[in-house]
What we know:
By secondary structure, the chain is of the alpha+beta class. The longest helix is centred in the first third of the chain and has 28 residues, at 9-36.
Amino acid sequence: MAKVEAGMEGMVDMYLFETTTLIDQLDEILLRTEQANEFTEDDINEVFRIMHTVKGSSAMMGFENLQKLAHKGEDMFFIIREDPSKMKDIGFVYDLVFQMSDLFKAEIEEIRNNPDYEGTDFSEMIAKLEDGARILKGELDEAEAEANAASAASGKTSAVSAGENQSVIRVFFEQDCKMENLRALLLLNRLKESFDVIDWFPKDVESNAESGTLIQEDGFLITLNKADVEEAVKVIEQSLNVDTYEIVKNEKEEAAPAPAAEPAPAAEKPAESKPAPAEVKKEPAPAKKPAPAATAAAQKQEKQQSAQQQVSGGGKQSLISVNLQKLDQLHDIVGEIITTESMVVSNPELEGLKLESFQKAARELRKLTDELQDSVMSIRMVPLVGPFQKMHRIVRDMKQKLGKNVELVIEGEDTEVDKSIVDNLNDPLMHLVRNCMDHGIEEDVNERIEHGKPEKGTIKLSATSSAGEVIITVSDDGGGIDTDRVLQKAEDAGLLTKPASEYSEREINNMIMLPGFSTNTEVTEYSGRGVGMDVVKKNIEKSGGSIFVESKRYEGSSFIIKIPLTLAIIAGMEVRVGDIIFTVPTSAIKQSFKITSNQIIYDTQGNEMIMIRGECYPILKLFQKFNLKTDITDFEEGILILVEADGKSVCLFADKLIGEQQVVVKPFPAYLSRYNLKAEGLSGCSIMGDGSISLIIDVNNIIDKQ
């Protein structure tokens, strides 16, 4: 297990990037082929290539545990490549490779986050993959493999089987004799010369020095025909460094204790186990294909690679990997350029001067900075296909565990968002998809049929871009939200802030995102603790976005996420309130207008409101909100800006509009964090052209506080 060496960080980053990409490709191939129930020769070759590449790169980096894990996966697909017909009706291969994929992902995160990484022991998973290879060869059936896995999971090392007319011999070597795995190999070879050795454990005594530790603790297990046991014992007694041995006639019977060690008890079947898989018919291993066929396959692969190189410009590299920190640095520099350009053009010393050549140069500079900004932003933009495709795996695993027949439909995965936002979307999307699977889709198929819906449920994941923001929708065609039940739960939990009768259906639906809210009476693997939906909302709001729920009983629910394309540079409308300038994101503004005093109406509590196209909107005076001094307090002298977020609207009252401008969002200084300015309706600040500070209004929170 190699520790990451100092000075190799660049190579490690490249290894992690390439391996993550390959593992994602592996998942995509497996999900696609499992859904289509077809594993083509090209798919098999591609999976084999991925395994081989990961094995080689892991060995180069010194990650021996990952190298061995990939090697066992490669061995399994080598058997499949030799005889593709073995993939028919063998679903265990998918489960094994998905488990291996999950281990790779977890280990990659450990390497990335732990500078003192030493490596994880994958011996249990390696044993499962070895059993998988034996099933494919016809040497083992799935029931025996499950028994082996259950034994390993419960910490028992007796992983050999004793069938009818067979016996297991457990051999212990002398203490401190060292290299027990090689001594076991020598003994195994001697027995093979004279007897039919059926099985042994550990299986990797020849290639894995760590198997010696298992032999020290639990002995070396050998399965022979009963008729050969007596003679085999004589060979064992004559072997060097053998301390004791015992004969286990049947692993289900408890063996007598050995002098040197206590034998492991029989493996018990877990209380909760999956249904027994279909029996795999044992057939003789097919003869290997003749060499010319293999050569033809190799020639075919070489032709495909040659064609790909021709398409990409004769093998020239058209894409390069760039460290995200360098892109962040470039992005920050562009932000400073935009700020500096604004300071130069808006310099108060230039007021009243007619400088035609300067104005011409300033317009050209603005054009170039806009193009530079667009280019840098486009570099950071990545499609949503990554987080979207990962949801296939979530749906697949939950389908098996919950026993629900569900199809995942994806639309708009090519929609692009800033890289920093995409990274923050994985967890929210996972929670929403799991919520749709667990709560949305009905458990009883008959309930769906009664309401005129197909037996197979549908979860839809879609994305579109509009007006500087991306709209992501996660929806299901399940039973919808029971508003009466939600309202009752909220009332019981003391979460209501007004009489229950005053809540609209939309407000009730969005209660499921309140902290601690859950309608489940029992805690399950997927839900019931009241954490999940509120975390989703917080994570999305951290990315500057918003989420709200729409649902119709017995027809389904939709979770609608709105997030900005980017967080660092936004288009904003500057407004003045007293001596302070605020920036309101243009994407949230619906319209701005002036009014007369007779247009103001009042609600029952005396709050000012304005009627616009038949709808009443509350008015929020910014000078009152932030306790600012201003001479403009009359509605006729100021201006109203109608803003909308999360399906709710409010009219902001300000002194006057200054104009629209691209602004670079700067975070507040750390010492202001204790004031929780975001909750009060401020998301950051920006430097104006004259060097003054503009406060950026967080429309979501300022409406929530209304």
